[in-house]
Every structure is written in C-alpha cells, then in structure tokens.
Amino acid sequence: MPRVKGGKTLLKRRHNLLKRVKGFNFGRSTKTRQAREAFYHAGVHAFNHRKDKKGDFRRLWTIKINAAVRPFALSYSKFIDLLKKKNIELDRKILADLAENNPETFSKIISAVK
Description:
The chain is mainly α. Helices cover about 75% and strands about 0% of the residues. The protein has helices at about 5-20, 30-70, 75-85, 90-100, 105-114. The longest helix is centred in the middle third of the chain and has 38 residues, at about 30-70. It is rod-shaped.
C-alpha cells in the first residue's frame, strides 16, 4: 500500500479552523491545537447561552415593566396580579415594549386594571 501524505487535506482543515477562530485572543487564533480547543469550548458556550438568553430577556422585561408602573403607585407584582384578576392576557414582552415605546397606551392599560 502506498504512503499517503495528508498535505492538502491537512492544510485545508487547519485553514478552515483558523478562519473560524479569527479574532480569538492570544494563541487561540493562530495555533492549531489551542484553536481547536477554543473552538470546541465556544460551541459549548454558544449552546448554553442560547438557553440563558431567554431568561435574560424575561428579566429585562420585568425591569422595564416595573420601572413603568412605579409612577402609578404600583409594583410589578401587584400590576401582574391585577392583570390576571381582570383577565387581560398580555405577555411580558408586549407589556415591556408598550411601556418603553408607547407610554400613553401603557397608561391606558394601567387605568383599565386599577
């Protein structure tokens, strides 16, 4: 069986890997072994943080709604409780958007629940 040298294939593999880690710090963007390990770890973090992002946004919406209802002498928890009692089914994402971009509409919602 003839000897096979992996020149072209190996160079292409290394080139593609280094293209994907462009911008990483220190040797992670230039050294193949460090680049491979950094690339694998980056994939793990990307997967985990896609899940975390949902919770991050929900926390942000809570903060925006709370800040918007404070001038009306309400807290976030009391506001959400009043919404549920009045059967107003707006989710937190929509409420946060209204509070930030359409304060007059948001104030109408508050007056409806009070």
